[in-house]
Amino acid sequence: MALPCFAQDTPQEEVVPSNYPKMYTSEYIKKITPEYKSVGKDEIFYVALDMLKNTTGDFSRKAILGNNLTERPVKIEFRDLGQINPAYASFDALGWKNGKRLFIYINPRHKDAPAGALAALLSHEALHQDEYNSIAEETYAWTMEAAVWCEILNEFPESEDKLHPLVVREDTLKKLFEKGNYTSKYIKKTVMQNEGYENLPSTSPGFEDL
Predict the structure, then answer these.
(1) Using CA atoms, how far apart are residues 2 and 175, in angstroms rounded to an integer?
(2) 193 Cα distance to chain centroid
């Protein structure tokens, strides 16, 4: 006699997006969303900001959440930077102040970047909190980015996608940071040689030392 056969459902492991660390399941992201939703609507920014916890970039994470000169959360979004100014079209990111609100615009070509690389980038951009900029400020911001990227790779080595252009940027900074014995020595030289910074003053408010 034929007996009935009952199929038993087996729980399937959730597929986490390939550019997220494995711990960032949909359930985990749902848990952290209330903390980060004020910065914008893109989930990957919540992941990136959360990855800054317990790193040098935690200062930047808190700044983006509102601990900054405007005392408001920084709005983050992917945006065609060439629409702001054709000269910005190839930029990876841009810090922007409009009235009393701060924005961080990320080049849309980085939508599929590892969240860890975006975390390092955000740690840099969060340091620009007013309309002033300088060689000293950029040097500090680039050095922060390099230091955070080193920490991200130690904690989340899967962030190292060498084919992605944003990772290429981060790895370049990491090499300069390591070459300078984990100081700004060679990063500063690179900033000073950057044509985009040739008209910047040496210092700016909050960044008085080179």
Answers:
(1) 68
(2) 23
30-to-1, 7, 16, 45 alpha-carbon distances in Å: 50, 31, 13, 13
Q: Which of 31, 16, 60, 47 is nearest to 116 (CA)?
A: 47
Q: Is 95 left (phi over 0), alpha (psi -120 to 50) or beta?
A: beta
Q: 98-120, pLDDT tens digit by residue?
A: 888 999 999 999 999 999 999 99
Q: Kindly report, residue by residue over 1-26, the tens digit of the pLDDT.
A: 455 544 455 455 678 899 999 999 99
Say if residue 83's pLDDT is above 90. yes
pLDDT in tens, 123-133: 999 999 998 99
String of DSSP letters for 144-203:
HHHHHHHHHHHH-GGG--TTSHHHHHHHHHHHHHHHTTSSSHHHHHHHHH-GGGTT--S-
Is 74 a residue whose pLDDT tops 70?
yes
- The H or E element that residue 105 is part of is strand 101-106
Rounded Cα gap, residues 210 and 207, in angstroms: 8
Report domain extents, the chain.
Answer: 26-195
CA atoms of 152 and 54, how far apart (whole Å): 10
Residue 1 exposed, middle or buried by CB count within 10 Å (0-12, 13-18, 19+): exposed
